[in-house]
Specification:
Elements lengths: L4 E9 L2 E6 L2 E7 L1 H11 L4 E5 L2 H4 L5 H9 L5 E4 L5 H9 L4 E4 L1 H5 L2 H10 L4 E10 L2 E6 L4 E6 H11 L3 E6 L11 H10 L4 E4 L5 H9 L5 E4 L1 H4 L5 H10 L8
Parallel strand pairs: 1-4, 1-12, 4-5, 5-6, 6-7, 7-10, 10-11, 11-12
Antiparallel strand pairs: 1-2, 2-3, 7-8, 8-9
Helix pairs in contact: 1-3
């Protein structure tokens, strides 16, 4: 069985790392280059960099910042935000990204997933999905959770897989920043429906939440931000805890 992955996430706004609650009330969380280097040293399995306002502001992601982060880490690096065409993907891969996360652009133009997979390989394409539970239904959102996309989580995730996505990064907007655990029921349904890895995002507040995402939600990886940025959970201690709970993780 493949080891479960622990993935810190750098949400970037105006060139700095930020973190909020339910996609709002953003606060400064540190320098992305320093944070990335520290997580690499601590034994994180991967690092995700999301320029969270690029799509909303109609611009490209901060390529120079991506390059600086990439130069200071030795783990796989996923970058998302403001990616609309193959040229954007090539630029970010050349800047040091290993994978590309597409969200809003993929919802608007689903063929983008297929195009990236065809040109660069399925392993490069991470389809990120921000979804909100409304009246028992998970609705996907565009532009950093601002605009409903008119698509349902499970059907869109399956379509993304069929179009060539190598992974699904599912963020529960209901759970984001609340720190009361991941959306494990939805995670389990995704994991059982799809044949590609599912990354859990939104809700980590304690080591037990990671354990539950893996054992109950059947996620392949768990992404978190504030608990790492503000020193509430250290990655080495988290991995030691998870190993003790029977979760297969890579240790330093």
């Amino acid at each position: 069985m493949l080891a479960k992955r622990i993935i810190p996430c750098l949400d970037i706004k105006d060139g700095v790392t930020v973190k909020g609650v339910n996609f709002t009330e953003l606060r400064h969380a540190g320098d992305p280059v320093e944070l990335g280097a520290e997580y690499s040293r601590q034994g994180a399995d991967e690092l995700v960099f999301l320029d969270i306002t690029a799509s909303h502001e109609g611009r490209k992601t901060f390529v120079d910042l991506v390059r600086r982060v990439a130069e200071n880490i030795s783990i796989p690096f996923t970058v998302g935000g403001g990616i609309h065409e193959l040229k954007d993907v090539e630029t970010l891969l050349n800047a040091g990204a290993d994978k590309i996360s597409v969200n809003s652009a993929a919802l608007r133009h689903p063929d983008l997933i297929s195009e990236i997979a065809l040109h660069f390989g399925n392993q490069v394409v991470v389809t990120a999905v921000d979804a909100h539970l409304e009246n028992g239904k998970w609705t996907c959102y565009l532009n950093g959770g601002r605009i409903p996309a008119g698509k349902e989580l499970f059907s869109w995730a399956k379509e993304a897989q069929e179009r060539g996505a190598g992974e699904i990064l599912f963020t529960s907007m209901n759970h984001d920043g609340v720190k009361d655990g991941y959306a494990n029921e939805a995670l389990r349904m995704l994991s059982e429906t799809l044949s590609i890895p599912v990354i859990a995002s939104g809700g980590a507040g304690a080591p037990e939440h990671f354990r539950d995402a893996f054992l109950l939600g059947k996620a392949d990886a768990a992404l978190a931000a504030s608990v790492f940025h503000f020193g509430e959970i250290s990655i080495p201690r988290l991995k030691t805890y998870l190993a003790g709970e029977g979760v297969n993780v890579r240790t330093i």
